[in-house]
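Re: your question from the hallway

Yes, I did run it. Sequences:
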Amino acid sequence: MIKAGIIGSTGYAGAELVRILWNHPQTEIVWYGSRSYVEQEYAAIYRNMFELVEGKCFDDNIEELASRADVIFTATPQGYLAGVLTEDILHKVKIVDLSADYRIKDVAVYEKWYGIEHKSPQFIEEAVYGLCEINRNKVKNARLVANPGCYTTCSILTAYPMVKEGLIEADTLIIDAKSGTSGAGRGAKLPNLFCEVNENIKAYGVASHRHTPEIEEQLGYAAGKEIRINFTPHLVPMNRGILVTEYANLKKKADGTYPVYEEIKAVYDSYYKKETFVRVLDKGVCPETKWVEGSNFVDINFVIDERTGRIIMMGALDNLVKGAAGQAVQNMNLLFGLPEKEGLMLVPMFP
Amino acid sequence: MIKAGIIGSTGYAGAELVRILWNHPQTEIVWYGSRSYVEQEYAAIYRNMFELVEGKCFDDNIEELASRADVIFTATPQGYLAGVLTEDILHKVKIVDLSADYRIKDVAVYEKWYGIEHKSPQFIEEAVYGLCEINRNKVKNARLVANPGCYTTCSILTAYPMVKEGLIEADTLIIDAKSGTSGAGRGAKLPNLFCEVNENIKAYGVASHRHTPEIEEQLGYAAGKEIRINFTPHLVPMNRGILVTEYANLKKKADGTYPVYEEIKAVYDSYYKKETFVRVLDKGVCPETKWVEGSNFVDINFVIDERTGRIIMMGALDNLVKGAAGQAVQNMNLLFGLPEKEGLMLVPMFP
Amino acid sequence: MIKAGIIGSTGYAGAELVRILWNHPQTEIVWYGSRSYVEQEYAAIYRNMFELVEGKCFDDNIEELASRADVIFTATPQGYLAGVLTEDILHKVKIVDLSADYRIKDVAVYEKWYGIEHKSPQFIEEAVYGLCEINRNKVKNARLVANPGCYTTCSILTAYPMVKEGLIEADTLIIDAKSGTSGAGRGAKLPNLFCEVNENIKAYGVASHRHTPEIEEQLGYAAGKEIRINFTPHLVPMNRGILVTEYANLKKKADGTYPVYEEIKAVYDSYYKKETFVRVLDKGVCPETKWVEGSNFVDINFVIDERTGRIIMMGALDNLVKGAAGQAVQNMNLLFGLPEKEGLMLVPMFP
Amino acid sequence: MIKAGIIGSTGYAGAELVRILWNHPQTEIVWYGSRSYVEQEYAAIYRNMFELVEGKCFDDNIEELASRADVIFTATPQGYLAGVLTEDILHKVKIVDLSADYRIKDVAVYEKWYGIEHKSPQFIEEAVYGLCEINRNKVKNARLVANPGCYTTCSILTAYPMVKEGLIEADTLIIDAKSGTSGAGRGAKLPNLFCEVNENIKAYGVASHRHTPEIEEQLGYAAGKEIRINFTPHLVPMNRGILVTEYANLKKKADGTYPVYEEIKAVYDSYYKKETFVRVLDKGVCPETKWVEGSNFVDINFVIDERTGRIIMMGALDNLVKGAAGQAVQNMNLLFGLPEKEGLMLVPMFP
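Structure:
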C-alpha cells in the first residue's frame, strides 16, 4: 500500500483527493493536513466522510510527513510548497503539487503573474509538468510533479492536436472558459456567497488570469515557438465543471481549401483514441460538463466554420477531478508504476 | 458474473442502475431496455456512458429477457410489471421491481391510491418489501422484491426505531419531505422545466401522495397497529436528494418525564450502529442531502423539544441511490448471497 | 416628499429598501447608512443601482440622521437599535425597525432567545408590531414600528384566521418553513458559500430558532392564550422566497364532523378578500415562492385531510419584500397617511 | 390609453410583456392571445398575475385584434406573422414583432438560416429594425417594428461603437455568448428539463445559430461593409440573463500604438452617455447578468489586452426585458410619441 499524505486536505481539491483515494485499492491516507482545522475530526469538516474517515487533521509539518509517507499531495495556496521544499524532503518522498509553484519554467514569468517571490527556484528545472496524456513518460521518473491547473488541463488538451500538428495559427487562439464555483475554493469570501453567484454569470481576470502563461508555455512547446493567446474565465452558477470554447484560424491546405471534418477528426483520434480519459465525441455532439461530473474524463469536440475560416474547439471536464485531484492521482499512479487508471474509473454522475 | 437486465434503463433511476452496476465487480449488464429509445445507442442517450457502455437499447420483452438474465430490474411506470409478470418468468429469474406494483399488500389500497387495476395480485403475497435494513432475511430467499419508494425509504428509516420501540405516539407522526427534481423523472413536462423549478419551492400531492399508504403500512407493522400519518412532499431546485423532517409526540416515561437525548440516541444506535448504510449523526448535526449525494447512505438525526413534548427526526438520502438504484442493488446482493455492500461503497461527492 | 434614511443599507434587506423606495413616488432617500462601506459609493457596492443612486455611504450616526429624515429604517443586527434609541430621536423621527429589538413584549423572552441584554426596554411597550394586515390601525399612530421577521410574517398570516376563529387546536401547530439564502444575509460565512448551499437542503435551528417566540406571541394573542408550537426552518438553494407548510388538528364542529373546504375558504376570505397583499389561491393550487418573487404578496392556501383530522396550511412570500423591506414600506405608508400600497404594486417576476 | 394586444402572451416573452405593461401608465392590455391556452384564465397559467389580471386567453385572430387594438405585440414562433400579415392589418394597427420574421432584409438569408419560406416578403423593406439606441428615429415613423433578438441586442450594442468608429477589424470579431434558460421558451422539451440544465453548461448551435446573420447584417451597416463573425451561444443554469464576451483585433493608431483605455472609454461614452438604458461601467468592473436582472439595462465594459492586440468587450442584459419585452415596449413608446423610458424604469433586482 502506498502511504499518502495530503497537505491542504480541507480545501475542495484536498477533499476530492480524499474521496478518490478512499476507493483507491493501492493507497492509504496517513495524513490529513490542514492549516485551519488542526486537531479537529476530518469527518466533522467534510461530513460526507462520516464513518468513512476516522482521525483528526494534522498541521502542515511537511518534514514530519515526509518521513511517514510515500507520496505527498500539496493542495495548498501558491507559494507554500516553494517556501518549504528541500532536497531532503524530495529525497524521502515523491510530491504531487496541485499549486502552481513548479508549473512555469521561467521563474520571472511566475513571479510576474503570481506577484510573489519564488523561494526555491532550484527545483523548477526537475519538476515535471504532470499533464499525463502528454508528459506520461517524464512523469514516471520524476520526484516532483507539477499538477496542471484546472483551466489549463482543459484548455491545453482541447487544442493540443491542432497546435502540435500545425493545423491552426496558434497566435489566433482565443479561449473562452467557464467554470463552476468550486474552483474558487472554500474560503469565506463575499463574491462566492450563494446569492452572489446564483442566477448570475460574469467574466473575471480578463486578460490577466494566472493560467494564461501556463497555457502559453505548454502550447508553445507544442507549437515549437512562443505564442500569445487570450484566455477569459467566467464564473458559472454550478458546483463543478469547466467548459472551454476555443477559437482559432484554420490553416488552409496546400490546395487552398480548409480541412474537412473527417481530416480533423482523424487527427484528434490519432492523439486520443487510446487515451482512457480523453473522449472525442461523435460528430455534432457538444461537450457538456454534466456528462463528465465526478469523473476523470475530458470530453472534446470541434466544429469547422468555413464561413469564417475558423475552428471552434470545445472541451469539458470536472475541475476537481481531471482538473485537480483525479489528475493528481493519475500522476501518482504513473510515479509508482501502477496502471494509470487505477482507482480512477469513476463513472460520471448524471443527473 | 450475475447477468442483469434493466427494463426502463433510460429513465433516471434506470440510468443510475447502469452507473452503479458498471462498477459492480460481480455483475454484467446484458439488456438495456427502453420503450422510447429502442435501437438507439445507450451512450447516445446517456452520454456520461460514452465509451463505457456499448450497445443499443432493447425493447421491453421481459420473457425474452428472463431467459437471458439472472436478475431483472424493472424501473418502469406503475402497472407495467403487474401487467406482464408470470409464474414462468419468476421461475427463471429474480426480479427487483422499482415500481410500486408489489409494495402494498392490500390490493384495494393500491388500486385506490394509484387509480389503476392490479393485473397480477396473485404475486403480491410472496413479494418481499425490500427495505434491506428491516427485511434483510426475507429478501435473501425471495424471487420478487418490491424495492421501496424514495420518500418511503427515507421516511421509514428515520422514524423506525421510535415507532418500533413505542417511544412516540405513531398517529401524531407528520412527515414533511423535500425532494430534488430527478424524482420527477425524465419525461418532458412543463412543471419540470428548468425555469419552472429553479428559484422556486412548492408542496405538491398534499394529503394525497401515493407514498403515504406505503409508509403507513410499513410503520404500521412496526407499531403493531394501523396508523394514519400526514405526508407532504415538496419540490426543491436541486437534482438529487431527499430530506425528511418528521414530527411526533414523545411518550413520557413512567416517571412522567420525557426521555433525554442519550436515551433516544442509544435506541437509534441499537438499530443502526451495525448498519453500513445508515449513519446516525453526532449530536446537534442536521442531515444535509449534499453529504450523501451519489452514495447509498442515509443520514439520520433527531432533536427533542421538551417545550412541546415532540421529537423532530430528520433523514437525508440520495433519491436515485438509496432511494432507488442503490437499494435495488443492495437487494440484488442479498438475493445472490453477495456481501450486502458489494459495489455500493460509493463515497458521497462534495461539493 | 418623505425623507427616508436607511441604517444598514448595504445588507440584502437594506438594499431591497433602496430598490423599492427608488420607485416610491412620495419618498426620497437621504441617507445610505453602512458600517462596512462608509465613504464608498453606494452604487459600487450594489451595482444594480449604477447610474440610479449617486452618493456615498454614511456611517451609523442615528442622531444626525434623525434631524435630517422623516423616517428611519434600521436594517441592522439585533441589539443595535436598542443600544442607541433615545426619546429625543423618537421625538424627531419615525422609526421602522427591521431587527427583532422591539418585536417581543416580554423582555425576558427576548433576552433568553437572543442571548443579549436589551438596552432600552422602556420603548418596548409603545412599539407596534408592524404586521399591517392585523395591526393596521395601531401602526398609523405609532412612532416606533417593529417590522416582523420574514418567517414570522409568513407563518402568522398563513394560520391567523384559523387560530383567531378557534378552528384549530393551536397547540398542535407545527410549522415547517423553507427559506431562500438571502435570509442569511450578506456576511461572508462558509455555510453560505455557493458550493455549500447549492444542490443541498438542510434544517437548522431546530427547536431553537429565534422566530419561534415571535410567532407564539402573536398567534397567542389571536388564540387568546399562551401557545407552544414547533417551528423548523430549512435552507433552500434559491436566492429569495419563504414557503411555510403548517399542520394543525382541526376542531370538529358541533355535529361531530370536520368543517369542509367551503367553510374554511369562507373564513380565509373574510379575513383576506379585501387585502391587497394577501392572495388566497383557488382550490387545489399550492403556493409557490416563484409566483410572488419580487413582490409584496403573500400567497396562501390549505388542504383538509379528513383521514387524519388535520389541516395543512401553506403560505409563500418573498422574504426580502413582504418579509422585510416591502412590509417596512407598507408600514411607512401607514405612518404617513399614504395609501397603503403606494409604491408597492410590484408585479412578481416569472420566471 | 394605448390599447395593446399580445399574440403569444403565454410564452415567457409574452408573459414578460404582461408584467411590464401592467405597470405602464399609458397602456391597457386588451387581448391575451395564446394558441395553447385559449379560453383559460390567464392568471391560472401565470399565477404571478393572480388577482392582477382578469380574463381569459383569446385565440390568434389577428384581424379581429387589429380592429380592437392600437398596437399588437407578436411574441410568436418564426413564420407566424409573415404568414398572416396584410396591408389591411398594418393600416389599422402598429405592430411590434418579437419574432425574426422582419429582422433580416435579405429574404434569401432569412430563408436559408431559418429553413422556412417567407410568406410576406413585401413588408420586409418597410419594417424597421427596432434597436432603439441606433434606429430611434426610424422607429418613430414606422408601422412595423422588427424587435431585435436577445443575443443580437446584447452582441450589437456591446461592439457597436468600436465597429462604427472603425477601431477594430470587424472580421476578427468573435462573440462568445451565454444565456439563461428562459431564452429556450416554455415548451416542454427534454433538454430544458431542470435536471438536464442544472449543474451543466454547454455550447449549442455552434457556427449555425440563427442570430448570426442578424448580427452580421446590423454590424455590417456600422462597418460599412459585409462582415463575417463567429457567434457561439451557451446554455447557463439560470433563469434570466445574457452575457456576451466579444473579442476583436484592435487597429493600431497612426503612431503604431494601440489606443489606451481612456481613448476607448471616450468613444463608448460618446455613444452611450446619454442613453438611459446603456450603462458603460467603471474601469475594471465586469458586467454581471445579476446586476441587470428584471430591468431594461444593458451593462457594457471592455478590457484592452496589449499583449495580443485585442480588445475584450463584455455586455450583459436580461434576455426577457432589454432582450425582448422591455425593448418591445421601448419601441412602442417611440411609436406613440411617449417618453422612451415610460414604464421601463425597472430597478434591477438583487439578489
